[in-house]
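Check my protein:
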Amino acid sequence: MSTPVPWARERQVAEAAVKLAAKLTKRVQSTVTEVSKADASPVTAADFAAQALLTLHIRRSFPHDAIVGEEDSSVLRSDAALCEKVYRLFREASDGGCSVEDMLDLIDVGGKGLGGEGRFWTMDPIDGTAAFLRGEQFAVSVALVEGGEEVVGVIACPNLKVHDGVISEAVVDEELGVVLSAVKGQGTTVTTLRLDSTESDPVLLPKLPAPESLRDLHIVDCPIGNPPGREIMRRLAAKVHAPFPGTDIWSSHVRYAALILGGGNVLGGWGRGDGFGWQGV
């Protein structure tokens, strides 16, 4: 008898859930127009619907696992119009077997914010909301934590397309982007998704080599939001004669994807206040 692969079922469930949420969020993003960009309701509705969808699929397979989401249902319970919009999105993406109250209860499962020292799932239904409204890069992510350590992680980047070896905020995939899946001790795979629900075979990514020279550093950073951190990265690049800017992406999760897919080898990690640092691979 073959030895079971650790966390194989968890990875399978996380991938299936994230792919469905990626399709839902991409569909909503395609409806955002210049007129509606000032209105955040499209991303709000997509965020709630994706959280409910992710929670539904995880709870069906692992009903006793805790889940940490972003929102509870209080906003929807006090806004009938928004609730109806969210339910319509959720129903279209799921099998239609849940009522409105079922959906709200699913959202509340993650809205309790209960993690702890044991086993729990955590999710970010839409990372990069500002870029989402601009039609640019965003991510849908799920992770399983056991004993304070991530053991499974799945990130979908529905707009991500590697163009001539370059990852860009503005280069948007007309299909469904990519899904990156990682399991502790088993490496990371990348799968290309298409809108017709077909996909490529997963490819195991090799470990990125260290740059031969500091001049070869390719910096992945966020162009706005932290001017002191941005200045540190500019000075670092100038000191080692590396190009700057490198790859500029708003969504933090897409920035990690850019590193993994070879779009960079240094990522700035700036905390609040005086908490500065950097990460590299």
Residues 8-204 form a domain with the Fructose-1,6-Bisphosphatase; Chain A, domain 1 fold (CATH 3.30.540.10).
